[in-house]
Amino acid sequence: MSAVPGGHDHYFVPEPSPYPILLAGALFLVGLGAALLVNSIAAGWAPLAAGAGLGAYVLYGWFGRVIGETRAGLYGVKEDRAFRWGMMWFITSEVVFFASLFGVLFYERHIAIPWLASFSSPHSPLSHYAPWPAFRAAWPSSGPAGKAFATVSPWGIPAVNTLILLSSGVTVTWAHAGLRAGNRSRLKWGLALTILLGVTFLFLQAHEFADAYSKLGLTLRSGVYGATFFILTGFHGLHVTVGAIMLSVILARSFKGDFTPQDHFGFEAVSWYWHFVDVVWLTLFVFVYWL
Amino acid sequence: MSTARVLSGAGAVLGLVGASWAHARAFYDFQTPVTPIARDILFIHNLFLVIILVLFLIGTGTLLYSVYAHRYRRNRSPATFAGPSGRKQWLWVSVPFAVLLVLDYGVLGIPALHSILALANTSDAAMTIKVTGHQWNWQYEYPGYGIDFTSTLSTPQAQIADQAPKDKHFLLEVDHPLVLPTHEKVRIILASADVIHAFWVPAFGIKQDAVPGYLRETWVEIDKAGTYRGQCAELCGVGHAFMPIVVKAVDRPAFDQWVRSEQAAQAKEQAASGLSYTREQLIAAGKKVFDERCSACHQPNGLGIPGAFPPIAGGHPFAAAAPMLAALRARGFYKGGDIVVGSVANHIRIVLDGIPGTPMPSFASQLSAADIAAVITYERNDFGNRTGETVEPKQVTAIEAGH
Amino acid sequence: MSAIEHHAPPPRGITRWLYATNHKDIGKMYLVFGITMFLVGGLLAELIRTELLTPTMRVLSPEAYNQVITVHGLVMVFAALMPITAGLANYLIPMMIGASDMALPRLNNWGFWLLPPAALLLVMPWGLKLIGIGSGTLDTGWTMYAPLSIQSGPGADFAFIAVLLLGLSSTMASINIIVTILNQRAPGMTMMKVPVFVWSWLITALLLIAVFPALMAGVIMLMGDRHFGTHFFSAAGGGDPVLWEHIFWFFGHPEVYVLLLPTAGILPHILSTFARKPIYGYQAQVYSFCVIGVLSVVVWAHHMFTSGMPPAANIYFMLSTMAISLPVAVLFFCWFGTIWRGAMTFETPMLFALGYIVLFGIGGLTGLVLSDAAADQQYHNTYFLVAHFHYALFGGPIMGVIAGIYYYLPKVTGRMYSETLGRWHFWLTLGGFNLTFMPQFLLGIAGMPRRIPDYALQFSHLNLVSSIGAYILGASQLLLVYNIVRAARGAGTPASDGVWEGARGLEFTLPSPPPFHSFTTPPLVD
């Protein structure tokens, strides 16, 4: 292998680092705390808080370290490619995570509910034995023993949120074009706009959740509809939150003068993530809210 | 070694072994099949075993031959080929796969398809029964005859604990077996009251999960009178090993006679629910019910198991998952970290309805009103509980009718 | 921090391990952790076999028994086999492809250090029980079927969170391995020149990324049903307990191949070395791995033939499952082709490799039997099934990793192990294993269900034989531990660079033990 541009003959292998084991320890504490708390053992707050604090410290330190190494010019083309592949496969694993949640939605709606209702159909040879004699297949449904609820109309907040997230995809691309053209103020404005749109989205989503609980009677307990609705929109919202935090870090780095028109993997990784979150939302809008 | 010869040889072996196995039943063989499905499955099983035995012998034989002939001591100049070359070699290489394809989708696939479809056909049954899995016993209902009873393990605790010699049918004996007529297609509807169980009687060739909230179906047509034994085949908690299935298959006249005696017995039991008993009678009967039905979880000493099953004894501390504690508190049986003895009415409701979301099952369909009254009286007057109360069967029927 | 430090010698003291970024150090930690947990899981197995020695409740209560079988399964799959294969991957892949290290070294260390906390969370409820909290650990079997797992005590939450950590660990390790294989290969090493072991791990890592997130989503939903009022798996709210089975086996079946493929990858290297002959059908094996990978994610419900799916579903899953026999047969054919007309010697790794072929053959053939949706009515959840998957998972993967460990032990430590003890280890393992599990086939056929702590009298004799076999099998693994410790402490004759007369591959061009950084300058591969 000839010399890589930037003078890196050797692949960069970082020196020993305390961060990985500390992050594993932090997650252990968070997990332990959560396991105690869900079982009503109040002492679980202590490890949970300690773990969260330690985790935040480690993430700050670890990413800070990577940014420092980037600035020191320790990464060449091959390192850059490794990071790209890494981010891509990480997003792939996230795709699988959401795909399985969509699979659950599909199963509950198109297999479980009709199956349950089939026993109580007047034509069924089993109708005499039906566990839930009055249950009829429908969607939305809270199941045979669930309480009634109303659903969120797709053409209110969800439609607005769709526009917001689509625009945020445009603004982040606009910022990227600015960065590549060497236009730093377009980069910063584009990022700031994207973050603003993301936060607006989250605000509206929180509002929608509050309405669902207080006015529509749609809660986690609303049978399979409520469960799939909240797990899908909830995990999506969580990803938007993480994405917005990452965008903010990128914005802060932009102000500090990081990223060159040629070399800005950090920016790209976050924008990939943001686009992924966008696509999940579109799927969600269609299958959770609309159809 | 030609493939055709191997195949025809295998066919001959298969025929012979199949024929002999159809009669001989050894300790390593399936139980004697007594339904069409079980016979189908035994045929498939024998076919399979012969095929895989032949495949295994060919494979291992090749391996052992190679180990012998191609060892360093005999052959110091290893060949250098790294794959098939030439049309003739490729042809040779593809033969095993062609054979496997035929075995998979022809020899084995076709009988399997036939049996799967036969198994799924529950129509045209002469009779229907409903089987419900409970933690940890089976409830059998005969809707056409108004018969409904629970079948529980009758092997004494002493035998399980190795304090008494074991019976012949250790762990495979019940107090009240399922009785089915022979030579009639019986459709079995399966339900579960709590977790997934599986109804399995090897001689019938059926194993079907019972899924809570759903129904499942299967069928049998028993062609030989006798007693057949099976077990739950899906892990369902601590009593999984202790909920056997015993089926007595009898001919139609005997079955009709059993139906009449069973109906008479149930009528008598119902009448018993209207009677009054003395406290001592109730406590004595209640102890028996408790030992059989409650002690697996709440323990014979009534102290339960920390974190899982609450004590019956009032005043004992108990900690467990929040939903269970909340449910106990709401019913007046938990206060300040201790189990307390709540009201009679709530006590009856807990036994009748169970506590949803916890392992406490509903006993409404499993115990008679007299038994429930007895066990509650016993619980409230033993284990250090001294309420002095007597619970009458009619109190139980009143609450049961109230919802 | 300067660029020169990056190829510095190993740091001293405990931080070398805690803070490791070196692939060999991390690989060794994986191996030590995995082998330790293999012994822990084995000890639990001996407890199970002791309970089943005779028909009576002997050493364990039914609650404890259910917990022990659950932890035995989870530990063996997630904390023993997977870490051992991941350790081999970490140690070997950079050497095999001519890289200096893994692509993402810090991520690598994170992936490893998530494992001990997960194992700790799994067993911690036993400790908590001693101080009066909860009722012990998860007691549902490793399959965690709802609603039993919803009903289960607080220990279940610890296990579910352990699964989340394991999932995170596997995902990170997989990303790192994929990136390393795609990005760090030496110049001239095209994908079709990459060693078979590396290919097997590429497919394994892709499978893990394709299925583990589904299990993580699943356990989150289980916790939702347990504590937050959702009804994913409960009919009252329109859910279905069988949905959990689908989620679990969508993960669980590919997981079997996750355990199997890396060892199917290491096998051709060993066979080729000791037959002194090139690997037969390299491309066929690579394509078979790919086909197995794809098939493994579309056959999951063959674990659910008695759950009451419609006949059409049973037929589909039966036919697709039978298709797996074809690529697996290709692998067997290539293994035979590799030794055919070779000049074989039978050192310990070769013995274990040949044992693998025979035992895994039995596992595979009985798997074919189980794929029959009709006959499965008799086999499902009996000891026939238990015997089948132990032939498939011990006979295959564990024999494979033991072969791999003996094969690379001289490379890693620079010292030869004791060949005599190695052979004893092999023959005792082979005998003990068959004595343990062959009777279990017969028990299953005779009608003994799995997961029961006590059984009817007609099963007594075979259970007794099985338990005796288990003691022999368990005790003989101590020979492996002794051999490893002995070589690691520097006893035994020094190993040459090539170690074995017939060994090929870049890893055998390096000294034994290899330098801290494998290839600081990438080798040229022609």
Q: Structural class of the secondary elements of chain C?
A: mainly alpha
The total count of helices of chain A amounts to 7
Amino-to-carboxy terminus distance of chain C: 36 Å
Structural class of chain A: mainly alpha
The percent of residues in helical segments of chain C reads 55-70%
The number of distinct β-strands of chain C equals 0
Give, in order, the helices and strands of chain C: HHHHHHHHHHHHHHHHH
Rg of chain A, please?
A: 24 Å
Largest inter-chain contact set: B-C, 104 and 100 residues
Helix-strand topology string of chain A? HHHHHHH
CA-based shape of chain C: globular
Shape of chain A: globular
Mean pLDDT figure of chain A = 92
Please, what is the average pLDDT of chain C? 93
Q: In whole angstroms, how far apart are the ends of chain A?
A: 55 Å
Structure summary:
By secondary structure, chain A is an all-alpha fold.
Descriptive report:
The complex is a heterotrimer of chains A (291), B (403) and C (526). Chain A has 291 residues and is mostly helical. Chain A has seven helices and no strands. In chain A, helix 3 runs antiparallel to helix 6. The longest helix of chain A is centred in the middle third of the chain and has 44 residues, at 77-120. By secondary structure, chain B is of the alpha+beta class. Chain B contains ten helices and twelve strands. Chain B is elongated. Chain C contains 17 helices and no strands. The model of chain C is unreliable at 1-5 (pLDDT under 50). Chains in contact: A-B, A-C, B-C.
Compile the SSE list and pairings.
The complex is a heterotrimer of chains A (about 290), B (about 400) and C (about 525).
Chain A: H1 19-37, H2 45-71, H3 77-120, H4 157-180, H5 184-216, H6 223-255, H7 265-290
Helix pairs in contact in A: 1-2, 3-6, 3-7, 4-5, 4-7, 5-6, 6-7
Chain B: H1 3-21, H2 36-69, H3 87-120, E1 127-134, E2 137-142, E3 147-151, H4 157-160, E4 178-181, E5 186-192, E6 197-201, E7 206-210, E8 216-220, E9 226-232, E10 245-250, H5 252-273, H6 279-298, H7 322-330, E11 334-335, E12 338-339, H8 344-353, H9 369-380, H10 393-401
Parallel strand pairs in B: 1-5, 4-10
Antiparallel strand pairs in B: 1-2, 2-3, 5-8, 6-7, 6-9, 9-10, 11-12
Chain C: H1 15-18, H2 23-51, H3 62-97, H4 105-113, H5 115-130, H6 148-151, H7 155-183, H8 196-227, H9 241-275, H10 282-296, H11 311-323, H12 325-339, H13 348-370, H14 376-379, H15 383-413, H16 419-446, H17 460-488
Helix pairs in contact in C: 2-3, 2-4, 2-17, 3-5, 3-7, 3-9, 3-15, 4-7, 5-7, 7-8, 8-9, 8-10, 9-10, 9-12, 9-13, 9-15, 10-12, 12-13, 13-15, 13-16, 15-16, 15-17, 16-17
